[in-house]
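Aim 2 progress update. The chain analyzed this quarter is reproduced below.
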Amino acid sequence: MSVLAVTGTGTGVGKTVVTAAIAALAAARGSRVAVVKLAQTGVAAREPGDLDAVRRLAGVGDVHELARYPDPLSPAAAARRRRLPPLDLSVAADRIRRLDETRDLVLVEGAGGLLVRFDEDGGTLAELARTLAAPLLVVTEPVLGTLNWTALTLEALAHRGLTLAGVVIGCWPKQPDLACLNNVRDLETISARPLSGALPAGAGTLVAADFLLASMSGLGPELGGRFNAADFRRAADQTPRPDN
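Predicted structure tokens:
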């Protein structure tokens, strides 16, 4: 895959950290990798955004932010509120195709979830992924409620004929609670495949060298790492439950 779209089951699930982890591993292998943030919201013009985090964590400078809006809303709503032009997904697709011509991997991070709107016509990351024939990596949480959020995202993805690249837990807590421990196996049942990774909580605060190590152990071979889903599931099954 040369273009990989990264989406989430919602806001704040760890999409940017997962994107940075994939970029870090690709760059460490010597691959030419570019990272695209379709629309940054909730950040003023000169404030650091998600791509600054990617640059710091992964050491990748080939980053491209296609739109920015200061209000913490969906891209469509944020553009409307400030009377700014919304992101044109056809223009975005053309830019990504041009990047793909000279890179080994182009990572495209969405905003919020799969069906968050970028414009008033209802354009979404799902539509862009279909245009680019790009697989989608779904970042989720392990917490209570994640099974419904993940199932809905995967159902929407499948309904649109999109390719699932995998499911990654974006933030695995140091002390997982009962829901987290039980949800590992259920997330794999919902997605009908082993997890593609689980990054530890706090990974986004690490220095680049330590982040690379965390990325290597937290992402599966299909994403360039050494994460073993069976071992992770077994460890979750064997961890004493907090209610015991």
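Residues 3-238 form a domain with the Rossmann fold fold (CATH 3.40.50.300). The chain has a mean pLDDT of 96. These observations will guide the mutagenesis experiments scheduled for the next reporting period.
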